[in-house]
Each structure stands twice: as C-alpha cells, then as structure tokens.
Automatic annotation (TrEMBL):
<dbReference type="InterPro" id="IPR036291">
    <property type="entry name" value="NAD(P)-bd_dom_sf"/>
</dbReference>
<dbReference type="InterPro" id="IPR013328">
    <property type="entry name" value="6PGD_dom2"/>
</dbReference>
<comment type="similarity">
    <text>Belongs to the ketopantoate reductase family.</text>
</comment>
<dbReference type="GO" id="GO:0008677">
    <property type="term" value="F:2-dehydropantoate 2-reductase activity"/>
</dbReference>
<protein>
    <recommendedName>
        <fullName>2-dehydropantoate 2-reductase</fullName>
        <ecNumber>1.1.1.169</ecNumber>
    </recommendedName>
</protein>
<comment type="pathway">
    <text>Cofactor biosynthesis; (R)-pantothenate biosynthesis; (R)-pantoate from 3-methyl-2-oxobutanoate: step 2/2.</text>
</comment>
<keyword id="KW-0521">NADP</keyword>
<keyword id="KW-0560">Oxidoreductase</keyword>
<dbReference type="Pfam" id="PF02558">
    <property type="entry name" value="ApbA"/>
</dbReference>
<feature type="domain" description="Ketopantoate reductase C-terminal">
    <location>
        <begin position="180"/>
        <end position="316"/>
    </location>
</feature>
<keyword id="KW-0566">Pantothenate biosynthesis</keyword>
<dbReference type="InterPro" id="IPR051402">
    <property type="entry name" value="KPR-Related"/>
</dbReference>
<dbReference type="InterPro" id="IPR013332">
    <property type="entry name" value="KPR_N"/>
</dbReference>
<dbReference type="Pfam" id="PF08546">
    <property type="entry name" value="ApbA_C"/>
</dbReference>
<dbReference type="InterPro" id="IPR013752">
    <property type="entry name" value="KPA_reductase"/>
</dbReference>
<comment type="function">
    <text>Catalyzes the NADPH-dependent reduction of ketopantoate into pantoic acid.</text>
</comment>
<dbReference type="InterPro" id="IPR003710">
    <property type="entry name" value="ApbA"/>
</dbReference>
Amino acid sequence: MKIGIYGAGSLGTIMGAYLSQQYEDVDLIDTNRAHIEALNTTGAHVIGPDLTQAVQAMHPDDITEMYDIVLLLTKQVYNEPVLAKVRTILKEDGILVSLQNGVPEEFIQQQIPRERIIAGSVEFGATYVGPGESRLTSDYEHFKTYAMQIGELDGKKTDRIVQLKGILDHIGGTEISDNLSGTKWSKLVINSTFSGLSAACNGTYGDVLDHPVLLRAAIHTMQEVVEVGHTHGITFARMSTFEPAAYATLDDIDEKLSTVPRLMHGSRDLEASMLQDLQKGQPTEIRFINGIVTMYGNTYDIKTPFNSLIQEIVEEAQAAKTVPDFETSVARFAALLNA
C-alpha cells in the first residue's frame, strides 16, 4: 500500500514520521525544497517525543507513482492546483482523506468524486520549527489516545474506514465518527470565533477572552455560525464540554459570557495560525473559515455581521501585508455591538 502525505508541514511531518515507522511506502509531499532536503538527509525530527525517523520526501513535481491513500493537509487556499494534482496521482480505487481545517469536503467533491473521499479532523497540535523538524504541542499521551477522527461522508461504518483507522492508529488514537460533518462544523464554531478574532485583533485567545468587547463579539460570532449551520442541515457534535447548539440564540448571554472563558481556558495562550500567516505576509484561510459562514449566510439570507467584520479586517491586513491594530479592531467591534 502506497501512502502520500500531501502537505508535509507541522502536522504532516509528524504523521509521516510515525507512519514511516510501520510502512515502507510512505511519501511526504511538500513544496518547501529546504524541508524536503532535510527530511531526506537527516530524517523527520519530532520535538517533544524526541523521535527521529528516516522518511522519503519529495516535491509534487517529482511524483512518479500512484497512491492508494492520500492524506490532504495543505491549506485550502491552494486547493485548486493541489486537487488537480491529486487527481493525477490517486489510483482508480484510491481514497483522499481530507484533513484540512474548516469544512472543505463539499468543495473537494467538485474535483474528486464523492465516493473516493473520506473526511477527517485532526485533534492534535503541532508547530513547524524548521527544515526537517516539527514540534508536537499536544500532550503526548493525549495524542496517542486521541489524534484524529475520520468518517465516511454518509456516516456509514465501512470496511475501508475500519482499515484506514488501523493505519492511522500508528500515528495516534483515531476514532470513527458517524457525524463527522457535525464535528467539523463544531470546530468551525471555535475556529471562526477565536482564530478569527485572534487574527482580526492581533492577539491571543486570552486577549479575546479578557476584553469585554471582544468576548461579547465572540458570543455573537458563535451564534451566527450555529444558526447558519443549523439552516444548512448540520447536527452539531458535542466536543468535550462544549455544546454548540446552546449558542443557537443570544438568550442567556450573561451566562454565556461567564461560561465561554472557562470553556476556552486551556487555549488562552494560543495564537491563530491565520495571525501567524499575516505576520509572515502569507495568504490566510479566512475565506474558508469565516468566509464559509458569510457565504452560507448569504445563501440562506441570514445576517452574519460579526463573521463578515472578522473577514473584512483580516483581508484588509492580508492585502496590505501587515497585521491589524488591536485597539482599532476593538473599536470596530464595539461600533458593531452598538449598531
């Protein structure tokens, strides 16, 4: 069985290292030539568990074989050329496992047949350190117990999903879900709210939680995502102590203002990857996070002013190749709250 990890960045490097311990035919595919050279020369180094594993890495242009399984980890901003390439390297009965942020599966189906797609959700964190190196930022025991969820798009438990679980279990604990779309939309509630506000305000999740204007904006953002998701036919999945359906309205907002900081306490120090992209002058996934909410909001004639403002601020900074000013962004959200 030949496995390709398309997008061997922070997460893909770790996945590639663990899969290469068990399987000989694993390729880490990336466009970063320095990273590829380091992986091929000195192996993949996973900081935290302190694992160094020999791997095979290559640029997409250098692929010569076909794959039974492709794990897709690239950013959605590159999906058009990436999926065009995947079509040419996936075997006739091969499967694409979508592990991207957001809810990309509906759009992936426009280029890859639905029956060849399995959806997935990554539940561990990692940071790209430099060529050949990635840091596991999640607790190791948690990672080995609960690293991913996967599921067929129709929720059925098939032979191939069971086989895929067995493969991915070599990375970390993998669960089969019968409602992965619900899981991914539940994560979208968190990402659009806290990753979105972190990027739009140039701060950590804690900065958002500690500011009364931004915390109130967060509740409004969550409500918009849940309303849009419900209208789109999504049954939100409970995530640990987080029940997204409870945020379908703005009722009991004072209780929510006290609950959300406790809910997100363990993530206070996080800084959105979209903010890190802005800091590097790179394109963000804002169109595929908050932009998905505003797109479906327009489709169903649901107003999404908070998601729209987050998207607007981030896209302005992206175009100017700068980062937002915290106080300026706070003032814009305060004005929206008072509108």
